[in-house]
Write a structure and sequence with these properties.
Layout lengths: L3 E7 L2 E9 L4 E3 L2 E2 H4 L3 H13 L6 E8 L3 H19 L4 H7 L29
Parallel strand pairs: 3-5
Antiparallel strand pairs: 1-2, 2-5, 3-4
Helix pairs in contact: 2-3
Length: about 130
C-alpha cells in the first residue's frame, strides 16, 4: 500500500498528513508526538479516529501542521486522520461520521469592527 495524503483544517490551523502502514509512530513537524502535545487531552483528540475504528498502532503518520494554537492544530490533525482512514477503507465512514470526525468545524474568529474595541464590544453607555 502506498502513502495516503490528506489535509485537515480547523480555525486557522492546516494539517497535512502522510499515512502508511507501520508500527503506530506519529511524528509532528519532525518532533515526536508526545513532545509536540504534552497534554494528554490533546493526544486523545488526535487518536480518536484511530480508536473508533480499532486501528491504533497500525499506521505510521507524519504530520506537517501550521497556524493557530495547539488545540486547533490537534483538531485539524484529527480531521486529516479521519479522512485518511476513509480513503483506506470506505466502511470506516459510518462510525467516523457518527462521531462527527468527518465534519470540518466552520467556526472562525469574528473580525474586529471599526470604531469598536473588539468584534462585539461596545463602549460603556452613560445615561448622564
Amino acid at each position: 500500500m502506498e502513502v495516503i495524503n490528506t489535509i485537515g483544517r480547523r480555525k486557522t490551523s492546516v494539517a497535512r498528513i502522510y499515512m502508511k502502514p507501520g508500527k503506530g509512530n506519529i511524528v509532528i513537524n519532525n518532533r515526536p508526538f508526545e513532545d509536540y502535545f504534552p497534554s494528554e487531552i490533546l493526544r486523545i483528540v488526535v487518536n480518536q479516529p484511530l480508536a473508533v475504528t480499532n486501528e491504533l498502532g497500525k499506521y505510521d503518520i507524519r504530520v506537517n501542521v501550521k497556524g493557530g494554537g495547539i488545540t486547533g492544530q490537534a483538531q485539524a490533525i484529527r480531521l486529516a486522520i479521519a479522512r485518511a482512514l476513509v480513503k483506506i477503507n470506505e466502511e470506516f465512514r459510518a462510525p467516523l461520521r457518527a462521531e462527527g470526525f468527518l465534519t470540518r468545524d466552520p467556526r472562525m474568529v469574528e473580525r474586529k469592527k471599526y470604531g469598536r474595541r473588539k468584534a462585539r464590544r461596545r463602549f460603556q453607555f452613560s445615561k448622564r
